[in-house]
Amino acid sequence: MIGLFDSGVGGLTVVRALLKSAPQADFVYLGDTARTPYGNKTQETVERYAAEDARYVIKHGAQLVIVACNTASALALPKLQEAFPAVPFIGVVKPAAKAAVEIAKRRVGVIGTRATVNSGIYDKVIHKYGEKLEVLQQACPLFVPLVEEGMVEDQITKIMIRRYLTPLRQANVEALILGCTHYPFLQPAIQRFMGKKVHVIDSASVVIKQAMEEYPQLFTAKETLSQHIAFTDTSPLLDRLATKWLGRPVKAEHASLSS
Amino acid sequence: MIGLFDSGVGGLTVVRALLKSAPQADFVYLGDTARTPYGNKTQETVERYAAEDARYVIKHGAQLVIVACNTASALALPKLQEAFPAVPFIGVVKPAAKAAVEIAKRRVGVIGTRATVNSGIYDKVIHKYGEKLEVLQQACPLFVPLVEEGMVEDQITKIMIRRYLTPLRQANVEALILGCTHYPFLQPAIQRFMGKKVHVIDSASVVIKQAMEEYPQLFTAKETLSQHIAFTDTSPLLDRLATKWLGRPVKAEHASLSS
Lengths: 259, 259
What we know:
Strand order of the largest sheet of chain A: 4-3-1-2-9-10
Distance between the termini of chain A: 22 Å
Low-confidence stretches of chain A: none
Number of helices of chain A: 11
CATH topology of the largest domain in chain A: Rossmann fold
Number of strands of chain A: 10
Shape of chain A: globular
Oligomer: homodimer
Order of helices and strands of chain A: EHEHEHEHEHHEHHEHEHEHE
């Protein structure tokens, strides 16, 4: 059983990548919709929330936890490893950083929430694997509400893409990491703005690729299929959003968290 | 001692109105920044959060609680009155609805978060005082992130004002209720778009007016001044925002809530 959690619905892009590569894998996904978003909150608060989220998926049988949230991956991974030493954790930051290092020779762009960008984690991890690379980061705080409003091809979104990404385009970054699980929905518009030569790296896909390489046994079909989606705040609106994003009917279970 | 709470920093507009009318009043303000925003969450979750917020300000001496959050006022007021029968609660909905009824003869517009608008509370309360009035509601989910990004006079904000408010302008509403404590920051831009004839009602100001009429003794100067601002998630960024909004130095205390 694979556990995944996110601050809300955004991490369903990771579930989507999982279902694409391993449709028969058992998983439990928790979206902390009652406290979403994490992206403007502090490290201490994000650490506490992430630990509660992880406890939930582990209690529900997770043998591996994929932190399907860039903010939690950026701010809380060491605390999580420490709090739950028996279960391996994979965050979205390292796989995306490695993918960028394989592609870029000079410059990498990273976009994310304010908390992710301020943590400096992408800068640190990219330099660990490619010390000569220049890393340009940009916080894009309006992208999450725009995606959640379904405005992915809206005029407003195009203006904000231009405003946030112009410095990265002008700097000729060779790879651009989408450092927030909501951002894959904007990938077509971002790719158009950045141009065909820029490799846009979707952290949702690369984290699933790494997890499958490291723990292949967890991604195989079992006799019975066990796939669960739970939210800390449930509503028909969220179910409709999840159904649309995953392309299959979703009726989320209600999760109560304990600290 | 007056207690005020909000889902986050938005309710500071009510504190601003309080300080303008009664600069020497004792108050404790709680902003639930660790779980903000409430506007897209369900009634059950908002009721639970509001009760925890109210308990905090009552524990810190509040003899009157001003629910400085439209979403909590719309969804949780009956539960709050029931849970804390010894303390009076004043929400922002009723004072704003009454102000609109005094002004409008035919049509009132209401803008707010999705939760506030879906609750239908403004429609219900306005019809209680002015049964013949037509009420037009519009959810404006992007206004809160735009205000929190400080983009109050931005091109994007103007486009969104036009998009959200055109139906209300075309319907010739005579009064427009700003049914979210973040929206007073957009008041100049909204007033320009709606035109001079439309009375824009800021729920922050009217709730303080009503509270002062009903409980004047709480708004007088005491021998010692006791004014506290607490957040469930504190950071220098939030302090800077609060300082800017209130026009005085703010260093918020950290609040831990119990249920």
